[in-house]
Specification:
This protein is α+β, with helices and mostly antiparallel strands and 263 residues long. It is built from 13 helices and 8 strands. The strands form 2 sheets. A 4-stranded antiparallel beta sheet has the order 1-8-3-6. A 4-stranded antiparallel beta sheet has the order 2-7-4-5, with no helix packed on it.
């Protein structure tokens, strides 16, 4: 977890490590997410699998901004990744970009931060352990926050309400609570979240359904209703849109890139 100074902006720090080879490549799939992540590949590197079957080198370090798409990555070598899971309104507060400018983008750290991004990438790669990486990244983000911090718009913290409610919110009520018309609220929300309130809520609801992975006691219908979907058909349609999978296949444990959930 982040220190109190960063808790309003950083949801958590995380790490993923594993082994792979040409004989047993590891394929990782990122899902649609309303929250961006700072990502550092300190060991090994992934290629992005494109729709035409070709591959493209992914960055060594960069930002996976909030996205409504899923992406696939593959590696044939041992890998280590360290990341910071952010709230979307952290982007303007930490990096002085409106969140909506980076939606669905994956800029590398040099593009995002210039030379200080290059320096941070090197420091993270050379750090001896995750505790050191956490300390380095915490210090860096605290300095960025001091440099760019502006008084928070109440709409930004409304985003936390949507996340904690797993997307089950009334948008008109949120606009009313912020003393704004719906149109004004939607415009300001998009600046901070990168998405309209409706689309952001849909993605958050989808993310909440992923947390049911491994729960063998619930049927797809029970998961659908529990996460606020109208019915199983609605659930299947949105799950496919945001993950590329039928939920039945994903929850079966056979889908690619779910090994970390089984650990």
């Amino acid at each position: 977890m982040p220190p109190p100074s960063l808790a309003p902006f950083v949801r958590c720090f995380w790490a993923l490590e594993g082994e792979a080879s040409c004989a047993t490549p590891y394929v990782h799939r990122t899902m649609a997410s309303g929250c961006p992540e700072l990502v550092f590949h300190f060991r090994g590197r992934f290629d992005e699998l494109l729709e035409d079957g070709k591959t493209e080198k992914s960055f060594v370090s960069g930002l996976h901004a909030q996205t409504k798409r899923y992406n696939r990555f593959v590696t044939c070598e041992g890998f280590g990744i360290f990341g910071a899971y952010l709230y979307p309104y952290a982007i303007p507060q930490l990096f002085a970009y409106p969140a909506e400018e980076l939606t669905n983008e994956m800029p590398d750290l040099h593009t995002l931060l210039g030379q200080e991004g290059v320096d941070l990438e090197e420091q993270m790669a050379l750090a001896p352990c995750h505790a050191s990486r956490r300390a380095l990244l915490t210090s860096f983000l605290e300095r960025k926050l001091i440099r760019h911090y502006q008084a928070e718009d109440a709409v930004a913290f409304t985003i936390q309400r949507v996340i904690h409610a797993n997307g089950a919110v009334n948008i008109d009520a949120l606009a009313h609570d912020n003393f704004l018309s719906r149109r004004q609220f939607e415009r300001k929300f998009k600046v901070h979240a990168g998405f309209s309130p409706k689309l952001f809520s849909r993605i958050v609801r989808f993310q909440s359904s992923l947390e049911e992975y491994g729960n063998r006691e619930k049927s797809l219908t029970e998961i659908a209703y529990g996460c606020g979907y109208f019915d199983q058909s609605h659930f299947i349609h949105e799950f496919r849109e945001f993950s590329g999978y039928h939920p039945g296949y994903y929850f079966s444990g056979k889908a690619e890139g779910v090994e970390y959930r089984d650990a």
